[in-house]
């Protein structure tokens, strides 16, 4: 190693480290089809691997990578493979892995144009492509953010600020304002609650509107609540629509929401973190009508676009809206260069100053695979979900609890001859038992208070055989649970 001049290695030594890394990466893909959902290693054991003092002296990188293989790679939760069904874990893709590696190699800071010229132009281009995928305005402004939560916070920040500007808060101050109210369905993701708290709106003013039998917002109840709030002297300012809820994939009537928002002069934000990017599929055109009317849209590329974590995006109708919220003059961030050119400065359009060049992996994978191929994978995931639903309907020991147009199925194991209490118990117990078993990874949720298993199927590596295996493993673990419950009862 070149010990005194920098942290860099001699060329051959670096090449050896890279080769070892490539071997580890290839090994991940060699067995990806059989990747376990979870490795049941105790928290204490995992903590113990890393329980050591600050290393003052360096270790041989090849030996270290061997340790990384055993303690980090081999214990990793199976997000790549076909046995992951929990939350929304989309499996990543190989081209983006390479892109992330190259991105950190050149270490561009996607904040000011001249700190990453190509990366800035690529991010702008990805934003334009994203607007095109969604049928949103071609002039859309946008920014890559960490994920759906940050994307909703950004959209709602802009919406709140536009509203405050319209009410001339700079002159009259906040204290002359009536409380702002914001509306969404009871199925809306908790990131909206977090944003509302962070933005100082207050969660007591977040109106959670009930849903219909398909878990879509009840439009009549929404209108009644808005009218009541106006009567009560409150200031309705925003509606958050769901373009795919996290629980069941329900898509609200976005056209109606846009028109209610317009009627009352409200901002219309769409949470498309789960479902927004699948809207381009011909099979889903009808369901997503109205999304193009949103004032802001939150998206997650680490869901339907199969990107590795983390990358989300906020779209707004034009760049000025972002800049109004985020531009801050500072002497050390000279703005004279862009004034004379078309340079776009992302730091003026987002809260962060330093930013990694997230859009590069989206750009490279869209170029390498082509959007049509990615769309084919999306459609395959939808088709596999319909297959899972059918398998559940055809199995006397399972019960389907929700249907959606997207890639989520909620269901319960009902066994044979179990009463309702036993069914409730076995489904609750299944989550921990399946984690311990590790073959597949699935979590649950509550639908109108009832606990259900929830399978999310966004992974281009899944096949019908993976779906069959899911039900087979759940059945197997449930039967073991029931057998030990009856032994205890005896
Ligand atoms: C509908 C919805 N909104 C927001 C989020 C939050 O996204 P993230 O985890 O990327 O912050 C999710 C995540 O699953 C989601 O499904």
TrEMBL record:
Its cofactor is pyridoxal 5'-phosphate. It comes from the Bacteria. InterPro entries: Aromatic_deC, PyrdxlP-dep_de-COase, PyrdxlP-dep_Trfase, PyrdxlP-dep_Trfase_major. Signal peptide: none annotated. GO terms for biological process: amino acid metabolic process; carboxylic acid metabolic process. Pfam families: Pyridoxal_deC. One of its GO terms (molecular function) is pyridoxal phosphate binding. Keywords: Aminotransferase, Decarboxylase, Lyase, Pyridoxal phosphate, Transferase. The modification N6-(pyridoxal phosphate)lysine is found at residue 303. Belongs to the group II decarboxylase family. This is Aminotransferase class I/II-fold pyridoxal phosphate-dependent enzyme. It comes from Undibacterium fentianense.
